[in-house]
Structures are given as structure tokens and as C-alpha cells.
Amino acid sequence: MEPPHDCRLCPRLAAYREAVRAEHPGWFNGPVPSFGPEDAWLLLVGMAPGVSGANRTGRPFTGDHAGSLLFTTLIKYGFARGSYRAEPDDGLELVGCRITNAARCVPPANKLTGQEIATCNPFLKAELSRPSLRAVLAIGGDAHGAILRALGLRVASYKFVHGATYTLPGGVLLANSYHVSRYNTSTRRLTAEMFEAVVEGLKGGK
């Protein structure tokens, strides 16, 4: 279900982790595991860890700008409880939802190759195979594509549009949101209100 901490399936990513580890030996610097209860009905999927965010802390979306909007919204709509303080020991708990990334290792310059995404796809497929799953939120277009490939579906049949939802074969709901990145929020491509509307729309999906 989870790649080992010393995973070397993607040589370029393994080499980059080693380079970051040499500079920051106290960071997590490994494939970032999923976060949240295994019987969650909602799965949130990002693309990959950020170098000074999840790659540092070892928890998805934790430690950089993206996590602020994500976790604040999850708390507001009852998908998390506690306080988000951008560290893995902040005591935050997810409720009914789980968070993962399509690729578990941080990529250089925040760019993955198609082969790296494909190599990590079986780990995403395992998350999507959980019997409790009822809905999936793709955080960004790349995550949207990775989800569909993991399910063996044609990406062209399900266009990525912010706020769009699709009922997939088997009945699982796929929802889309622009990524909660600093770039998207600073340019207002994604506002807090826009992201909140997507998450609020999922509340009744259980």
C-alpha cells in the first residue's frame, strides 16, 4: 500500500531526495505516506509533495502554503478536527477523509515525468480500491489524470474543470478543484470561496 522510505523505483526522484537529505538531514526526505483513516469515504488526491512542505514534514500538504487553505477548509466543513499548525505533530485528525498524492516523492523543480507518475500509479490504485470509498477530490489537473489512469479510464472522457463532478463506473464520485497552490491563490485563479464550495458540495456524498 505504501512505498518503502528508501524506495528507488524512480532513480531521478531517489537521487533528488538524497541531494535534499544531504542539505537537510533532519527532514523526512522519503515517499510521503497517505494521511487519514483507512476507512475514509472521501479521498483527496494531490500531485506530489512540496520540497519544503510534505517532503520536510512527512505528511501530505503539511508545511507549505497549500496546506493552509486545504486544512482550514476541511476543519470548517467537518472533515478534520483540531488545529492545523503546519507540523505533523499538531494533533490534527481527519474525519471521514484521507489525503494522498499521485506521486509520493518530491520532484526536482516540482515537475514529474510521465514515467514517474506511471511508476507510482499502483500505490494510488490501491488507495482508490478501498471498499469504503464513495468520493474522490482531484486537487489539480495532473491529479485528475492520475486518478483516471489508476482506474483504467480514458482521461479524455472526463475533462478537468474546476467544480465539475463525474459519477465514475462503480458509482464513485469524482470532483475537481484547481490546486490550492500559492500561485493559484495569489493570482485568484482559486479563491477560498471557490475551494470551499467544492468541499461543501462533497459533504452529502457519504
Q: Major β-sheet, in short? A: 5 strands, mixed
| CATH architecture call | 3-Layer(aba) Sandwich
Number of helices: 7
H/E element sequence? HEHHEEEHEHEEHH
Strand content: 5-15%
Largest beta sheet: strand ordering: 4-1-5-7-6
Give the oligomeric state of the chains in this entry, treating copies of one chain as homo and distinct chains as hetero. single chain
Number of separate domains: 1
Write the CATH homologous superfamily. Uracil-DNA glycosylase-like domain
- Kindly report the CATH topology: Uracil-DNA Glycosylase, subunit E
Q: Distance N terminus to C terminus? A: 24 Å
The CATH class assignment is: Alpha Beta
The helicity comes to: 25-40%
Structural class: alpha/beta
Would you tell me the overall average pLDDT? 96
Radius of gyration: 16 Å
The low-pLDDT segments are none
Structure summary, number of beta strands? 7
Cα shape: globular
Question: What is the strand and helix layout of this fold?
Answer:
Layout lengths: L10 H13 L18 E5 L7 H4 L7 H12 L3 E2 L11 E2 L2 E5 L12 H15 L6 E5 L1 H10 L14 E3 L5 E5 L4 H5 L5 H11 L4
Parallel strand pairs: 1-4, 1-5, 5-7
Antiparallel strand pairs: 2-3, 6-7
